[in-house]
Amino acid sequence: MSKPVVLIAEELSPATVEALGPDFEIRRCNGADRAELLPAIADVDAILVRSATKVDAEALAAAQRLKVVARAGVGLDNVDVKAATQSGVMVVNAPTSNIVSAAELAVALMLAAARHVAPANAALKDGEWKRSKYTGIELYEKTVGIVGLGRIGVLVAQRLSAFGMKVIAYDPYVQAGRAAQMGVRLVTLDDLLAEADFMSVHLPKTPETLGLIGEEQLAKVKPNLVLVNAARGGIVDEHALYVALKEGRVAAAGVDVFASEPCTDSPLFEFENVVATPHLGASTDEAQEKAGIAVAKSVRLALSGELVPDA
Ligand code: MLT
Predict the structure, then answer these.
(1) CB neighbours of 128 closer than 8 A, spacing ≥ 6?
(2) Quick count: other Cβ atoms within 10 Å of Cβ 53?
(3) Which residue, among 250, 198, 200, has the nearest Cα to 220 in the 3D structure?
(4) ipTM, 2 decimals?
(5) Is 100 left (phi over 0), alpha (psi -120 to 50) or beta?
(6) Which residue among 73, 97, 219, 230 has its CA within the 20 to 30 Å range from the CA of 280?
(7) pLDDT digits (tens, 9 = 90+) for 223-271
(8) Which ligand 1 atom is at minimum distance from the Cα of 50?
């Protein structure tokens, strides 16, 4: 009898294949390339993706015997979950695999922006020893506003509390008492915008969160604001951020995610006070291993007709 076929459509940790074991035929393709993806998905039982592969209605329609879409990460915004469910295809993800890594990158971007790490590094390697030009600011005793106090937002809050920051958060789904237990004061978005010296966004991308931090919101922030988005591109409107930086209404930004990815040319790249990375939040050995193993286990269970527990 032939083995069920698992298509790995992106670079995943080697632990993924190990965790799948010998019971599957493993195929690979470049899922970001539609001309490769559409024929490759036609006759597989499961597909494993990160964020570059769009498993949309078209891809699902091309899949003749697909049973599982496995997202080796948290966000499901590159999978049409509704279309998958309608076609009887199960969607699984690894919701806790990379939360520590994502939180650590947000903190890294915040520190890098506050201390001009990227431009100082570039200048020094260019032969310039400029100390006063790159005078930064401390996080200590500043107020950080966390937008979205979910799994990652909480980890960021804990880490920044340890830096001696005052932590406030906006999250309509979290109760004030629960936040207070973590030493976090829940506020409205407007209050957060008015009070924050630093701000970090930790929301999923949904129709409600798209453009949540736009022109109107950036008009309300302090001019010393350091804004970090390591969640999803588009939650902070890139044009509005560009204008605010240009007009000096935002001091600096750390940007890991873009409205359209891959993004190798953004107007934001013109600013020395923007530190940018190519969607690296989940890109650690640890997170990739955890994500790969988690989705491999879910695929094994799903393809053998067993219940897939919520992670
Ligand atoms: C996530 O949603 O977990 C990340 O975007 C994962 C990734 O970068 O692959």
Answers:
(1) none
(2) 25
(3) 250
(4) 0.94
(5) alpha
(6) 219
(7) 999 999 999 999 999 999 999 999 999 999 999 999 999 999 999 999 9
(8) 9
